[in-house]
Amino acid sequence: MIVQTLSETKAPVTEQPIFELIEVEQVFEVPKPGRSLFSRETVGLRALDGVRLNIRKGTSLAVVGESGSGKSTLLRVLLGLDRPTGGRALYRSKPILEGRATGVEFARDVAMVYQDARGSLDPRMTIGALIAEPLRHFKIVPRQDEAARVSQLLDRVGLPADAADRYPSGLSGGQVRRVAIARALASEPSVLVADEAVSGLDVSTQAQLLILLRSLQRDMGLTLIFITHDLGVASFLCEEIAIMYLGRIVETGPTDAVLDAPSHPYSAALRAAAPQFFEPLSEPLSGEIPSPLNLPAGCRFSTRCPKVQDNCRLKDPQLGKLGPRRAVACLHPLEQQ
Amino acid sequence: MNDTALYHVLSIKDLTVFRGAAKILDRVTLALAQGETLALVGESGAGKSTIATAIMRLLENARVTGSATLAGEGDLLTLSERKMVKLRGRRLAMIFQDAGTALNPSYTVGRQLSTTLQRIHGLSKSDARKQAIDLFTSVGINDPEGRMSAFPHQLSGGMQQRVMVAIALAGSPDLLLADEPTSALDVTIQAQIVRLILKLTRERGASCVFVLHDLALASQACDRIAVLYAGQVVESGPARDVLERHRHPYTKQLKSCVLEIGAKDLVAPEGTVPSHDQMPNGCRFCTRCPRAVARCADETPPLVPARPTATGPLDHHIACWNPE
């Protein structure tokens, strides 16, 4: 039986968060638009602004948002690739960067599947060598067991054992993504971070990969952080969801609860814009995501919000609790039925 | 519109495209009524974009047989290039998937639209500019006058796609081919662009062929759907017939892969599309088909009415030896 209900998956989860982001800010200094050729003027681009997020061990979290919402910046902070300019980013209660600086444990424990799977694999290495690399680097198995472990991993992601002798160029898009997943799993991580790991694939290949990812997450007890723009993917794969808009998480909670009855008008708009069989095309949001160089006053969604009220343009709402395990950053959250 | 409902703007018959030894389209037959929107759906390699490009006669290094008749002009595949140049933009126009690369990076978007208007309507420079601003307004570009002097890279993906729509509609074509016009865009922008294309084509009474990979979006945006697999039309007809009363096993499989929000079950099909040197002679889906019978591998099933009551080429059709 593949279907698991939310209550079943909740039981083994301990409440100690594996990742904790407290008011994380990431401001990039970028050249001021329209500055003269020799000017060094810069302005701050707030890529992340007051991000609060707890990721519990063993959960699966979808980070959803449109381009420019800060998903990738958030990912870089979680992976310890960038030092946030404000706030605290903790991994197992210690600053992420500290964890990264002291030993290889963080890198072994938190594995990443990149969006451009083909680009993340060295084209001159065979698949076998690519998967063996992390095994050797993290000293997972003795040398003589390497080959056996590689074929075990290939089998785990549904690739034939003879794929080990092939090169990335000889594999299809779906197969390359499986290799990237096998490589990420090689270090026996407890956290798997995937950036749009199934986007740009045909629906049948996407379905195969999603089933694989879900079974991996459940069988190995992985904590899965999955960046996607597809709400269908999020609802299939992830227990929890965090919806981002313009550098801030505007709503989080259990995926089904949030998507059934969104409280933030942006979540509702995103939900309505997702194609649904034979539903009339939704009335789209007006306009486009504003430039992060020039954030709107008050609520950052106020320029496009269909439910905007006067005080929305004055006060910037923070992510606040809205009932059990849900939080929303809105002054006038939508009524819950 | 009712009295012209059966007037076929485009009818494609046995369109076959060879690229080297590979037959990338295999006897595609389709028809399109005036004012109607048709979705071509299928996975990559199904030949969706090839159909659109073949109709525009923009295919290179390919041998094309069959016919594609545009009402009043004859077979597009045999017209002289001179004639085609006249038709492109005026009677048929195309919106490409990636507006960022389809627009010329060295000219302002205003100039790209005005030159099109000057060429098609023979307008003077100042009249073309005026009309270009009007068109930019109608495709929902705010500050159209200011945007006239913007270069493509200064615009967002959604705005670039709006510019493409404006250029495609500049000559009021009666057939618009939109090749995955929104697949590079965010969902909220996708909804804007699809609605825009539908609104503008309906206002002009034009017909539209959408190349899509999203079945749910196809059901929302299009009157009819043609499902393609590896270069063959396997099922076509009114959207509800194809998606809710489908009889071809591939349509069923494709639909089962669509993730609806809240769905917790998903059936992943086995295998992949065979490569062209291993393509079966008969139905190309037979290598993965759960209902395949002996004759499937050797004989191509013809596209026939799915129900005895069907009459015209716009009705529900399937190509299968063992339909459901």
UniProtKB/TrEMBL annotation, chain A:
<dbReference type="InterPro" id="IPR050319">
    <property type="entry name" value="ABC_transp_ATP-bind"/>
</dbReference>
<dbReference type="Pfam" id="PF08352">
    <property type="entry name" value="oligo_HPY"/>
</dbReference>
<dbReference type="InterPro" id="IPR027417">
    <property type="entry name" value="P-loop_NTPase"/>
</dbReference>
<protein>
    <submittedName>
        <fullName>ATP-binding cassette domain-containing protein</fullName>
    </submittedName>
</protein>
<dbReference type="GO" id="GO:0055085">
    <property type="term" value="P:transmembrane transport"/>
</dbReference>
<dbReference type="InterPro" id="IPR003593">
    <property type="entry name" value="AAA+_ATPase"/>
</dbReference>
<dbReference type="GO" id="GO:0005886">
    <property type="term" value="C:plasma membrane"/>
</dbReference>
<feature type="domain" description="ABC transporter">
    <location>
        <begin position="22"/>
        <end position="271"/>
    </location>
</feature>
<keyword id="KW-0067">ATP-binding</keyword>
<dbReference type="InterPro" id="IPR003439">
    <property type="entry name" value="ABC_transporter-like_ATP-bd"/>
</dbReference>
<dbReference type="GO" id="GO:0005524">
    <property type="term" value="F:ATP binding"/>
</dbReference>
<dbReference type="InterPro" id="IPR013563">
    <property type="entry name" value="Oligopep_ABC_C"/>
</dbReference>
<dbReference type="GO" id="GO:0015833">
    <property type="term" value="P:peptide transport"/>
</dbReference>
<keyword id="KW-0813">Transport</keyword>
<keyword id="KW-0547">Nucleotide-binding</keyword>
<dbReference type="GO" id="GO:0016887">
    <property type="term" value="F:ATP hydrolysis activity"/>
</dbReference>
<comment type="similarity">
    <text>Belongs to the ABC transporter superfamily.</text>
</comment>
<dbReference type="Pfam" id="PF00005">
    <property type="entry name" value="ABC_tran"/>
</dbReference>
UniProtKB/TrEMBL annotation, chain B:
<dbReference type="GO" id="GO:0055085">
    <property type="term" value="P:transmembrane transport"/>
</dbReference>
<keyword id="KW-0067">ATP-binding</keyword>
<protein>
    <submittedName>
        <fullName>ATP-binding cassette domain-containing protein</fullName>
    </submittedName>
</protein>
<dbReference type="InterPro" id="IPR013563">
    <property type="entry name" value="Oligopep_ABC_C"/>
</dbReference>
<keyword id="KW-0472">Membrane</keyword>
<dbReference type="Pfam" id="PF08352">
    <property type="entry name" value="oligo_HPY"/>
</dbReference>
<dbReference type="GO" id="GO:0016887">
    <property type="term" value="F:ATP hydrolysis activity"/>
</dbReference>
<dbReference type="InterPro" id="IPR027417">
    <property type="entry name" value="P-loop_NTPase"/>
</dbReference>
<dbReference type="GO" id="GO:0005524">
    <property type="term" value="F:ATP binding"/>
</dbReference>
<dbReference type="InterPro" id="IPR017871">
    <property type="entry name" value="ABC_transporter-like_CS"/>
</dbReference>
<dbReference type="GO" id="GO:0015833">
    <property type="term" value="P:peptide transport"/>
</dbReference>
<dbReference type="InterPro" id="IPR003593">
    <property type="entry name" value="AAA+_ATPase"/>
</dbReference>
<feature type="domain" description="ABC transporter">
    <location>
        <begin position="10"/>
        <end position="255"/>
    </location>
</feature>
<comment type="similarity">
    <text>Belongs to the ABC transporter superfamily.</text>
</comment>
<keyword id="KW-1003">Cell membrane</keyword>
<keyword id="KW-0547">Nucleotide-binding</keyword>
<dbReference type="Pfam" id="PF00005">
    <property type="entry name" value="ABC_tran"/>
</dbReference>
<dbReference type="GO" id="GO:0005886">
    <property type="term" value="C:plasma membrane"/>
</dbReference>
<dbReference type="InterPro" id="IPR050388">
    <property type="entry name" value="ABC_Ni/Peptide_Import"/>
</dbReference>
<dbReference type="InterPro" id="IPR003439">
    <property type="entry name" value="ABC_transporter-like_ATP-bd"/>
</dbReference>
<keyword id="KW-0813">Transport</keyword>
